[in-house]
Amino acid sequence: MHAMQYELTLPADYDMNIIRARATGKGPVLDDFPGLGLKAYLMRERGVDGSPVNQYGPFYLWNTPEGMNSFLWGPGFQGLVDDFGRPEVRHWTCLSYEEGVAAGSPARVAVRGRQSVPEGVRLSEVMAGAVREAERLASLDGAVCAAAVVDPRHWELVHFSLWDHDAPKVPGEVFQVLYVNTPERDRIPRGRQW
User: Is the whole-model pTM more than 0.90?
Assistant: First the structure.
């Protein structure tokens, strides 16, 4: 499984209702997209939940590389490129995915916690710790789901979680959830991915 995210940082005076309308208007197009486990349409608004910027930053969990590639080379992503320019697309390999205690609830907030994997550590221990953290996040009140992912090129570890309430008490950048697609969420492998 692969995770993917791109971010569009927008001007400080940008009307973020344009992003809200885009997400809710175009979101249903991916409700049945093959290979897509989950897509969360995310937004940070300057001055809200500590955000210093206006930003659109959807996050994806892909069950298949074919699904991810079909999206990236298809009309949906090209439409975003046509409207905003081509963003850098970050992607990670998945370490763990867990359904949360509030898995049936609609997600309202997402949190992305990032950390570097330092030199000189035992990688197996760091990755096992990331799996345990995803389990812990998923067990917290209001957790819809949690994933731990890693970029082994830049050695960045990311914990991504969705919540059914505002501003959970977990470290990281807080995003508003505008829409969620879950066409193959039931096929996302649970637990440790190796």
Answer: yes
